[in-house]
Amino acid sequence: MADRMAFFTTPRHPRERRDPQERLGDWREVYREGATLPVAGDQAARCMDCGLPFCHHACPLGNLVPDWNTLVAHDDWRAAAARLLATNNFPEFTGRLCPAPCESACVLAIDAEAVTIKNIELAIADRALESGYDLPQPPERLTGLRVAVVGSGPAGLAAAQQLTRAGHTTTVYERADRIGGLLRYGIPAFRLEKHRLDRRIDQMRAEGTVFRTGVAVGHDLPADELRARSDALVVAVGATRCRDLPVPGRELAGVHQAISYLTLANRVDEGDYPVSPVSAEGRHVVIVGGGDTAADCLGTALRQRAATVTQFDINPRPPGRRASGQPWPVHPKVYRVTTSHEEAGGPAAEPRVFAAATVGFEAGPDGRLAAVRFAEARRGDRSPRPGTERTLPADLALLALGFAGPGFPGAGFSGPGRDGGLVGQLGLAVGPRGTLVRDEEFAGGADGVFVAGDAGRGQSLIVWAIAEGRAVAAAVDRHLRGRTELPAPVSPSDGPLTV
Ligand SMILES: Cc1cc2nc3c(=O)[nH]c(=O)nc-3n(C[C@H](O)[C@H](O)[C@H](O)COP(=O)(O)OP(=O)(O)OC[C@H]3O[C@@H](n4cnc5c(N)ncnc54)[C@H](O)[C@@H]3O)c2cc1C
Ligand code: SF4
Questions:
Q1: Which terminus of the chain, N or C, has fewer Cβ atoms within 10 Å?
Q2: Residues enclosing ligand 2, CB less than 6 A?
Q3: Do the Cβ atoms of 309 and 285 come closer than 8 Å?
Q4: If you average pLDDT over every residue of the chain, what do you get?
Q5: Atom of ligand 2 nearest to the CA of 103
Q6: pTM of structure
Q7: Going along 5-49, which residue ranges are E strands?
């Protein structure tokens, strides 16, 4: 501990954001570049280096938070980077995108403001990349064993990096034209500039990981054939089936799945289109959903110069602070103003309508979407309360209702599907929520097949995907060599801290 009383004398200094109006004029990250570095030392000194660090337990990766806080407070960035990279393959992603359950579990947060753990993590990650503390680590020798990883989201990437570094010849197969999963085409550039992803992929290439894009395993390349020519296969295909909203008018032109809309906006950023084929410009937009995806649609629609944007959240407005049922150290559901809500003018000009159940979509004279009907959602079953129905003009509606697992039957966004495709070819079982069944060693289906990330866990977080990627790599290594030195931070049955 650098300063025993810093938690008492130094106030929390959150990461500085650019002015919302400036942000809306571009697609760059919302935070001020380099703003964390000058304050990181003082902020890290606020860490009390508790005997029982709950932050460490709340982080699925088991990040050694008090260790690196102390090192940053002592200006020893090289050692801090070594500690951080020992548990996290991609801290530049979690440092930007993680909801930071560690901060909810920080002992200081019991009656004061938590240490800015996530910002310090980011400062270390960025400094490590700039200072050459995070260089490629090619294996000293190859095992001669081949592993195929299907899916290039954070779970597949973490698994591949661990397996390559352990000496296995690892190839990542991705059906999309670019690597990255939801980091590439889900999360907008204003929350993660894609050159950061490219830099990490370049590092992985330099270590020996091979990437094959435009290959939908199960369709373009039979999954059983791929399994037969590999020594092990990791399925990390995400939870790619969008939940739908089966209400009258769903089929109208102008009603889109959020992920399709976000993908197109990201493709503009990648240079594939000059403007998005589904743009919010000049439109009255309604976003149905209350999570990260909905907030990303809001920020995107505002940057595309929508005429108005309204967000329907079916849940009632959460409390401003921890409710009694969500005591420290759990990560509580509280009212949050994301950067997108801030850009919309919130909380003063709140774009969200809480407890709003969407009842149907109405067409205008041209047959396209013209209005959305909604009602107050009852507490409990969240059904529309009779007599409360209203109509809001809208010519673009975005459905951000979350994802079911890749085995979920029915219409959805290009998942491999339950019938045929990868799931059938590998003999994978599908659980009740559409996720792929695996045992406590991440194994599922045919021998030598493993499942990691949202595909097995269901829709989750980047930090869990990376943790599962690291853990599945350990399981694969043990399967191939009979032993492993690779870390396994989580098991498939682990979950967030609860009381
Ligand atoms: C809009 C949005 C915003 C989000 N924001 C956050 C956030 O701020 N913080 C956070 O922690 N989490 C966030 N999440 C959740 C997070 O992105 C996911 O939990 C995480 O990406 C899951 O990682 P994954 O590797 O399991 O799967 P994914 O990232 O979904 O990657 C799976 C990959 O597999 C590929 N694939 C699928 N089938 C095949 C096949 N048959 N052959 C080859 N490839 C295939 C897919 O194309 C995809 O690239 C967000 C999610 C969305 C949608
Ligand atoms: S990965 Fe997330 S939970 Fe873990 S230390 Fe970083 S911000 Fe906290």
A1: C
A2: 59, 61, 63, 65, 94, 98, 100-102, 117-118, 121, 463
A3: yes
A4: 94
A5: 8
A6: 0.97
A7: none
